[in-house]
Fold this sequence. Notes:
Elements: H1 2-32, E1 46-59, E2 71-86, E3 89-104, E4 110-125, E5 131-141, E6 146-147, E7 154-156, E8 162-172, E9 178-191, H2 195-199, E10 209-210, E11 216-218, E12 223-240, E13 243-254, E14 261-272, E15 277-287, E16 293-295, E17 306-308, E18 312-324
Antiparallel strand pairs: 1-2, 1-18, 2-3, 3-4, 4-5, 5-8, 6-7, 8-9, 9-12, 10-11, 12-13, 13-14, 14-15, 15-18, 16-17
Amino acid sequence: xxxxxxxxxxxxxxxxxxxxxxxxxxxxxxxxxxxxxxxxxxxxxxxxxxxxxxxxxxxxxxxxxxxxxxxxxxxxxxxxxxxxxxxxxxxxxxxxxxxxxxxxxxxxxxxxxxxxxxxxxxxxxxxxxxxxxxxxxxxxxxxxxxxxxxxxxxxxxxxxxxxxxxxxxxxxxxxxxxxxxxxxxxxxxxxxxxxxxxxxxxxxxxxxxxxxxxxxxxxxxxxxxxxxxxxxxxxxxxxxxxxxxxxxxxxxxxxxxxxxxxxxxxxxxxxxxxxxxxxxxxxxxxxxxxxxxxxxxxxxxxxxxxxxxxxxxxxxxxxxxxxxx
Length: 325
């Protein structure tokens, strides 16, 4: 009997001890188990990137019978974008920068390109997933002064001119390659901060007023505002492997001068040689009824020369370093 009682007490003590040990292990496991924290999902609403290009050109002659002028040129390009899509909202931002110079023997260096173009467009989905109610803000100017190649006089500069455009309208975006923005409500400002250029009425601002003796009565205005309609279309796609094409057209119609449409058309063809070497072919055509261009006299065509309205055209061909990010 006593042996049974002792044996029973030993079993009870063993079970209690085992239970305490198991409780201690569970407590240790609770206290010292590493807590796993899951990373927050990456924000995929933003797409950011761009490119940097540095292009060079050189022509050299030595005892060349046909003649020629030694020259060297360089141009830097930066294109950045940051686009957001979240729910029914879109926000597209772009910054295009370009600056280049050309140096010929025995002549001062001159600009071959100069551009600052900042654009921001916000949209909210309208009656379908391809149409958006949108607002657009655009700013254009240049980095440095531009000189008349004939006499060296200054004909443009930083913020002379500058263009600010604000438009409200609708944006059509059927896919990632094409978009078309249309606005019947657009305000456009032309800014000329250089007073000498403003006094001569450059870029369409009101020039200075003079009396009969030639004395200045009022200085030229430094800005000009316009109200009208605006349209902008853009297409970009890979035509084939390592060949990319981008074209953009902007149209502005001032309601005060109906029928006289300002045009800005650009096209760029990029051909990628390898990871870091590329060739680009670019073209731009501008027409602004308010900008007068100095034209050479051409008696055969009945053109006496002087300032007049005409289309402006620029073409570039570059080969150099390209880095995408």
